[in-house]
C-alpha cells in the first residue's frame, strides 16, 4: 500500500489496529503491551525473573522455575526456550498474555521456561531476530559448561533435555533456531531435544482449502512479509517457507514437529 501520513511521510504498510509502517522507517504500533511484572504465581507456585542476554542489543528473557514437589526435593528439570508470537513485529515476552502462557507451560510441563524478548521488525528486520534466538540458545548452553551465571539453570536444569518452541512468528523463529542447532555446535555438549511449533508463520504451498477468514489472514501475512524481511524473494524464501529448500538434518537425538495451522 502507498499513502501519505502526517508530515508527508509515505505509508508503506498499514494493518489497521495493529501496525503502520512509514517509508522513513517510523513505525506505529497500536496493540498496547500489558506489562506483567515477574513474580511468584500464587496459583501455580511458579517463580519468574527477568534476565539480560545481549545488553547492547536489548535482548533479554523471562525465566520461569516451577516449584519443588510437595514434601520432596526438586530434581533436574528440562528447559524450554520459547519465542512469543506477533508476526515478527508485535508482542513481548513481558506482556500479560505471554507471561500467563509461559507460567502455565512451566507449571504443566514441569520445565524451566526461558521466554525470549527478541528484537522486533521492521526496525530489526528478518533475519536479525534469528540471531537473537541463537544468542538465547547459546546463553542457555553456556550454563552446561559452568560459564553461565543464572542459578536457576546451573542448579536445576537438565541440559540433556533442552527444547525449543514458539507460537506464530515465534514458531518460525524456533524452527530456524533448531535447524541451526542441527548444523552448528551450540557448545558444551548441548543439543536440541525437540521442537514444538504452535500455528507457525510459514507461507508457500497450496492455500486453496483455506476458508474466507483464513484467506484474509493469509493475504495480510503475505503483504506483511516483505515489510519485515526487505529484499526477500517472496513466499518461497526459505526464511518463510521451510519446504523451499532442504533443511540440514538436526543433530539432536530426536526432533519432533507439533505443527498447528500454517498461519498464526
From TrEMBL:
<dbReference type="GO" id="GO:0016787">
    <property type="term" value="F:hydrolase activity"/>
</dbReference>
<dbReference type="InterPro" id="IPR029058">
    <property type="entry name" value="AB_hydrolase_fold"/>
</dbReference>
<dbReference type="InterPro" id="IPR013094">
    <property type="entry name" value="AB_hydrolase_3"/>
</dbReference>
<protein>
    <recommendedName>
        <fullName>Alpha/beta hydrolase fold-3 domain-containing protein</fullName>
    </recommendedName>
</protein>
<dbReference type="Pfam" id="PF07859">
    <property type="entry name" value="Abhydrolase_3"/>
</dbReference>
<dbReference type="InterPro" id="IPR050466">
    <property type="entry name" value="Carboxylest/Gibb_receptor"/>
</dbReference>
<feature type="domain" description="Alpha/beta hydrolase fold-3">
    <location>
        <begin position="80"/>
        <end position="245"/>
    </location>
</feature>
